[in-house]
Fold each of these.
Amino acid sequence: MRTFGNLTFSGTHWELKAEPHVIQVAKRLFVRAEKTKAGTISLKHTPEIARDLEWFIDRYPLNVDDIGRLKTFSKDYQEKSHQREQILTGIIKPRTFALAVQPREYQRVAAEVMLSQKSLLLGDEVGLGKTCTAICCIAQAQCQPVCVVTLTHLPEQWRAEIQRFLPSISVHIAKKRDPYDVRNRKGEWPNVLIVPYSKLAYWSDVVAEHCKTVVWDEAQELRRHESDRYRAACIIADAMEYRFGLTGTPVYNYGGEFHNVMRCINPDALGEFSEFSREWCNGVGIGMKPRLTDSKAFGTYLREHHLMIRRTRADVGRELPGLTKITHFVEPDVKEFIKSKDRAKELARLLLQGTQKGERFLAAAEFDALMRQTTGISKAMPVAAFVDMLIKSGEPVILFAWHRACYDIYMSELAHHNPALYTGSESPAQKQKEIERFKSGKTDLLIMSLRSGVGVDGLQQRCKTVVFGEFDWSPGVMEQDIGRIYRDGQTEPVMAYMLAIDEGADPFMLEVLGLKQDQVRGIRGESLLMEKKPDATEVMKKLAQRYLDRA
């Protein structure tokens, strides 16, 4: 039989050296391939690549120096893929997990897939019980000891949930920044160690040495590759046998961040970042953020290759009564814009006319911060009046905002409701106390920071109305906020009011939020709402130009 070249295994990569026309075909088919020298390309060795190469050499026969390895990994990939598909379609029934409270069928299915392939990103819609699914895996002896990595305010909630499902299991929370001996008096390591992301850089070596499994709660926290936290996460990920990620919002900003998240869950799944960017992104370069070329196609790829499972309430037959989002415009206090007028004009001119890149960058950052705060303060009074009206009509309300100055106005204007406050300034104990005040009915108003309280549960039994007094640039943040009450256990329709003004940052934030929401919906397999994608930098320039035109 005629052969077209050679396929050689180098230990970590497959090196393909072949006739020019075969190389050209391979480049088109294997987008992530790297060119090493003329007539040769290199592909990182993974089971998926082995399967694709076996298919490729059926069309273009090659001399393979390690055909046994290629066929073994290819067969393993096919068998495991077929098994996972049978689990997801119900042909193979998931095991019964020995928990004190039995998980639902869809939670058992996801846990079975997790255990089958030892790595998975569970992207179920907020409120469907991703924690319970992870606990199904935690219960397995082969997974222990387990490290659960979560946000600073959630370790106690995780411990309570684990002990509710697994009352006999030992759980320890890393209380100090610097590692210490967590063994009990018998010298036994706990079944579960809970480490906040804020302590991860200090505990990474201990976790890597002792644990078999890592659960990344709110896995979108792994999206920034330049942080010490992320470097620690990679050390842990590389040492684990099982790696599970949980998040209802895998992409907070630009889709390219997904590579960073997946690197800590399935390190080889998307290849090196250079491979990933060639295959899936555009706009990658110095000073540019990687953006997915086709987020919907990428989401399909993730699900079909079982790298991510994502179910909605409709998918699991547990639809909530419904969610209604209403954008309601209020009248701003124009005096706030007058106060900041001089500085805002100066920054807008620097942003549009600055001669140095660094100067423009700093001006853009300060202009953004100034306009957001001014916008929030200018509508704080009508926001408070709107919330007051809702509460007087009998509705408990969660009010979301960002700036301390806005909180102060809300607390003053709504003092007669004795509001509970949950922001970035309170201690964990104070936050829990405030949450309990609201949940117990001692107050009908909970004021929360947009980026505080991710993962807090139990509010859905008390409230069905949220109000956004300010917005966040990332739709994932606001989706998480709504998910505080729009989740399993909610028995009534949920209303989410977006209170906006037609001045300042609001119109432009909504425009950029549309761009980012496009990225999130595509990955999840949802329909895309926007045909034209605005550029964030251009939006900021438009905001500056509009401000100068109106000043």
Amino acid sequence: MMMERPTCWILKICLFLWVSGLGSLEGQSFNPWANKEGREEMILIHEGQEAKAIKHYEDRLASDSDRQEALFGLTVAHARLGHADNSISFLDRALESGLPFERFLAGPRDLLQPLYTFDAFQKRKARWIPVLLHGPMVGGLTDRSARFWVRTSQSSRVEVLLRADGERFPKRPLITPEVWTKPSTDHTAVMEIHGLKPGQKYHYQVRMDGAIVSDGHAFMTFPRMHRPSDFTVAFGGGAAYTPEFERVFTTIKSRQPIAFIQLGDNIYVDQPEKPSIQRYGYYRRQSSAPYRSLVSNVNVASIWDDHDFGDDDCWYGGDPNQPRFKREVWKVFRENWNNHAYGLGQENPGCYHDFYIGDVHFILLDGRYYRTDPTNASGRSMLGQTQLDWLLKTLEHSKGTFKILASPVPFAKGVKPGSRDPWDGYPEERSRIFAHIQDHHIEGVLLMAADRHRSDLWKIEAEGGYPLYEFMSSRLTNIHVHPVMKGSLFGYNAKRSFGLLEFETTLKDPRATYRIVTIDDEEVYRHSVHLSELSF
């Protein structure tokens, strides 16, 4: 047998360290899979360590001179050091590489403030044709209403004009009420319109300060509520910002889902006490052309997980006001999404909410805001009492043919052996939810989850009841991967992937079909479940 040369082993060790996130630069630890595009460098800038950030960015440029996020960061770092010529030079290189000028207007504005004082920047801004910085994003859809989210560069009057498919824009189109964007909400606004028709395709334009600034978008209203229908939703988590894999959102759009559900680890912030870094994470994704194209045409609903809400495997206790950063993280989250609801409002904040698509009921959980210490078996809770009561009541009164219970972390046992971060860390609360389903004979429940960097199907057997199938997918863009577990019916981690759930409730025996689809649009697995399998 031929022995491998020493250099091969060296390369393998380096690759292992890179993937494991154990490498370091100048003593600063970095995690490449979660920080492919300079999150840690932006944190250094935030903390006044611009020189270190510059060195790390330059190291990135050494292997790719057009790396846009490095060019952006160097613009910011040099501006904060007062190096006007260097800052503008990197700004121009970033623009030449294709980075939209809007990135420098979006921010984080507090970190970019020195750049705005340069005459050279103001001259470039004067040539900029005003457009939306981010959005539009379709969300909060029902069978008869729609909501549209945008972000502008300054306080502006914004409205949306709609027409039904097959019509030209009439002299009197459907128009949402006009809304002002304001600094207090990071120049974002949500416009809502009612009186639409179920299952109807609508085209729309965005008008800002009297001028059309965004056009060519279309969406489909949901099927008539509580009526049998056929449709598909896409879902997934694990979406660290990695430019070369942003194309997954183009693949998702090509499958024409009526909705896209993001189940957490959507941007990877891990900085609950730094709103600027949180916003930086959102701005990168919202400036991504593939993502922007998807969300302007497909309803998006989102919940968070640890890397969006706090840090890895976090729990901060059940008090809605402590630690104090909880409220601020919730505010930033609401500024960047377009959900049907965000918990139960100011008294009971969070990202949990529910909605119907036709006769399918989607119930999305918040597994972080109220989570307590999983090592304390006395009264430990992932959801908190208010959310748990809401969940049990919502399940009990659901009119859905299928009820989709979506969690940021998996319910199935053994998905992350030895860890208390999934529902394995909260077995009493999990058992109470499952018992409630059995005790009240709630039929048609299916589980959806993310967190593990792969796509899985699990089957949870229940004594005296029907089995619960859990559809899992959480490697939309991540480089880092988790191994497939033996306990799953199927697992896939070879490429980035997402989940599709196709519902056919018009059938005599309604059916839900789970598909695992790769970034390259390859269907690697499918499994169908009939309502008759989810009955007592």
Amino acid sequence: MSIYIAITFSPVQSFIEKSRKLRDLFGASLILSHLSRRLIDILIPDDQNKDDLVISPGLPTVEKGLPNRILLKDVFPPETSDSEIDNQIKTALITAWGIILDICKDWIQTNLSEFAPYHWDKEWRKWQKCTWEIFWGQGDSIPIAMQQLEQRKLRRNWTGINWIGESSSLTGTDAIAWQGLGAEDRNAQFINYSREDREIQAFYQELAWILDGKKTQDKRQSEGKYIAPNERLNIPELVKRLVTLPELATSIQMETLDSGFQDIDRKPTQTTPGQWTGWFMGDGDKVGDKLVEIADQQGESGIKAFTKALRKWGKEFEAKFPKDKGRVIYAGGDDFLGILYSPDSAHPIPPLTALDWLISLPEQWQQHQRDITLSVGFVWVAGTVPQRDVLQHCREAETQAKRLGRNRVTIRVVFNSGQYVQWTCPWHYLEILKQYRDRDDKTYSNWQQSGQQSEQEPNWNHVYNDLLQLKSRHGFGLCVRDKQALSELGQEIMENRQAVLEFFDIYFPGQKERIEQNEKKEQDKTKKIIVMEENAKLADQADAMIRWISDLITVGWYFLRNGE
């Protein structure tokens, strides 16, 4: 009888989200994939057949995009105790992570030798032991191993690292990495902050200058390709930057960034406005349930085929992504993150181009030919919103799409102030945004059919201003949000819903009939009116339709007008 073991480690999302530069995101992704591969390699030596022992993920020897959820078979002898298994898995991950840390630390000490002596070895060892948590589950069937893994994930045992002095300028947590970190004579009561600040400043100016290839005479004027001279990073943040240096990645034996890699120029300058960019985060719906179903019905061969198909899709999705439209940061099968942006900030990507790509995404997704749907959070964001906030918005938008029924996309437009508007819809309704037709535009060409943006863009001002007028007068019940009041209005809300559809049809010709036909099909199946958001918490389904149309117009106005 075979024994299966499911393994994962964390934190993953927070490790990725603690980012300021695009380089941080790629560095984090490279590290996570490398640790997954090394974990497999250490637990399954080269003299054993990985194809037989690795059930999931598929393509385990392809490092790029390798997920951190691993399912193995017959890796440990049956008599191995839980404590021995736990120790071997933890040792494997800590060893792999320690090699990355050691190579980065040694590179700094070699290239910045004038700052010796370094007092930080103890701090690097702390991060080796305390960065990751390991979780695993074991059983004589795949579902049992996966279930035990999920149960153990509920028992967190995370250890924080104390520090004295100033903290990272990126996240505001954990100590700044510099040569004096960990010195025994440092005392919180007697730290000379002015002196330490000067030493830290000199350290980071030198580090930034060397990483940029010593291209400037004045070290304070470094380009900051890898690290800006005024940045102050903790050890994991510093490592995420350093692993994107080709020579270090080669030493670690991990994937490298392509030679033409550049960070996104999003922020405004004296000559160019801030670039609006589109960030997308996607995830297959109920993949865990699907894996359990496949395990029950098809066994390990089905799991292998399923995960291999998803990994192949992720690999091709990243490879074929048009470079003139942006980049895919990671694609680990059913889980991916990417950005739509222009390499030339003076000519940002048009909103309609971003929308066209988003509309095409479900078709791309179906190329893996597996029966699972997709939920995506798409964030169209202004140039001065911090990257770590953008990633949080992506996560929230994706969660919203799943919460409202899955197989959906949530479009969230985020402004420089941090405020946002959003709209969630099933994928087959997304193209409605391209059906807008201004009632007063007599010269408007049918750009939505040609796929080309016309010289005169549709004027969303009219429909948006009409919506604002209706809201100010409580038209169609747009500002009524009290649950009890809605339940008492009854027939009036249904009449408001019909009136909103009539209003909607003026600017989106034919869409009222389409919505009603789709609802009738559902009504014939369930004997009740079904609205697109299917959210039981809403006080009334008719009010859901009213809000859905209101959100569509609001997002369309801000998104397709480039947020101006």
